[in-house]
Amino acid sequence: MAKGKLSEEVKTLIVQSLACFDAPSIVVEAVRKEFGETITRQFNALLSASTFTLANV
User: Fold this and answer.
1) Is the residue at 57 inside a domain?
2) How does DSSP assign 1-57, residue by residue?
3) More reliable by pLDDT, 33 or 2
4) pLDDT-based confidence at 1, cuts 50/70/90?
5) Is the Cα torsion angle 42, 5, 30, 56 positive or negative in sign?
6) What is the residue range of 29's domain?
7) Among 35, 33, 29, CA closest to 9
8) Is residue 55 part of a domain?
9) Which of 5, 30, 2 is nearest to 16 (CA)?
10) What's the pLDDT score for residue 57?
11) Residue 33 pLDDT > 90, yes or no?
12) pTM of the predicted model, to two decimals?
């Protein structure tokens, strides 16, 4: 994966998980298991459901 490029599916999973108040470590693990991609907990912690609009996901 190119640095800084997340697929729409990964973005959707992150936003949905954070909207359900899942811990960043849980979201990181879910992305790794479901998509085989690695994101850091620090990156994930910067994101919130308000970061993305419905047009982006």
Assistant:
1) no
2) --TT---HHHHHHHHHHHHTT--HHHHHHHHHHHH-----HHHHHH--GGGS-TTT-
3) 33
4) very low
5) positive
6) 8-48
7) 35
8) no
9) 30
10) 42
11) yes
12) 0.66
